[in-house]
Amino acid sequence: MSSTTLLLAFASAAALYALYKRYTRFSLSKIPGPKSDSFLFGNFKEYARSEAGEADFKWQSMYGDVVRINSPFGGERLLVSDPKALHYAWQQAGSSFDKPPARVALSEMALGPGLINVVGNIHKRQRKVMMPGFGSTEAKAAFPIFSKHAAKLMAKWGDMFSNEASETIAVDIPYWLSRATLDAIGEVAFDYQLGALDHKDNELTKGYFSLVFDLFNAQTPKDVLLINLLDTLPRSIARFLLAQLPNSRLQRGRDTGTASTNIARQLVAEKYAALLDGKPSKDIMSILVKANANADKSTGLTDVELLAQMNTILVAGHETTSNTLTFTLLELAKNKDIQNKLRAEIREHRRKIYAQGRTEFTPADIDSMPYLAAVAKETLRFHPVVYNQFRMADKDEVLPLHRDILIASIAGYNRHTDVFGLDASTYNPDRWLKKDSKYSGVLPGVYANVFTFGGGGRSCIGWRFAIMEIHAFLIELVKDSEYSLSPDIDPSRIRREPCFAMCPTLKGEEDKGSQLKMTVTMVPEDDD
Length: 528
Known about the structure:
528 residues; five-stranded mixed β-sheet; three-stranded antiparallel β-sheet; globular
């Protein structure tokens, strides 16, 4: 039997199984939601292919915080932005809600069995071993490295200023920030010099540059059907079927994973040797190696899992931060008052640092810079680069759900007016300087009431590092530079592209990938 025939047979069986489930389980029909566009696709063509959060906002305003949306072959999903429901499913009963089969299998095949690609007890075991590398102390220790790479980026732009003999240059923001954050996470996580900012031609830099967009952008109708069909099947079958597909996206991930694994194997060997010599480094991988060496074999990471963490950390900690910074600069370019206020705070604090005989910012300084923190929080709220999360109930729940898929609308929750005020749909960092929030209910997230880093046992393990990196980069980016949208770009063309880690694209040029051109202008100190 040919692979094509085999796939068609399994696809037909999956479709029949989906139909069986649809008409034998509890119906969600009494929950309000949009009418189905078609039996074949439901509402998922619109949901998967519109701008990130666009459908969420529309349906939330029309139907409320719990919305029934129709999935392919007559299925149903719940789109949830209600704080109490999210707290229950992600924190209180988190062990009953895990990632759906196809999404786990797809990610694992491309990137390996790292923390974000495993479920259940395997995930709990991995997370327990990895936690010592991701504490507050470790994140603060990484701040100088983040600052160093941000300063290196600004030095590159400084060369451009000099070469063009101008106080203004044109810059494609995502291109440069992606390289700078890739270099930063390479050093922080592995003490490894990737050389992305220096345009070094190596396998890892080429592999990880724009990897998330290449893997997850622009779902076709066929992609929508395939993912939703496979989500109805056990993980082992979903993984088997995906392995039969000649998919260029998956191959891109596999090729990058192979290159990453080869380098990770060498790094792990070096770090074990350093540990035995009593000279361990302080990067995340070294801490991981030490924790794993001290763990029992039954509770530690296998060799394959340990190597897969390099892929996991580079993917999860690279473009997410890069795109968050890009959207921050977009908002600063659109709101010059906010940009000027942030720059004034940074410069005021810089003068205090100089007066103390210091030259560099430290994590302790951030505590005295409330507007910097407010801008970071507001971007994380307003532009959550991970804009939704899918979970499947593995047993009957109060909602009630049984193997039904719950979609957390992170974008919708982050603009919930009960939590963030009536102006929740407006970018306004000042909201974080007020102490008059009237919301007193439970909250699902791990940081600043936002759900951007998820919540519960599957929350982003590296969120503290992300906060440190965002602060470090914003200080360097804004202190002596002003950002404006390129005069060649119509702001209405800027899209929040849905591709796992939301990125900026231009309408009509989505196939070109992440792009956002700005003009950057030097701002002398006496311009305050």
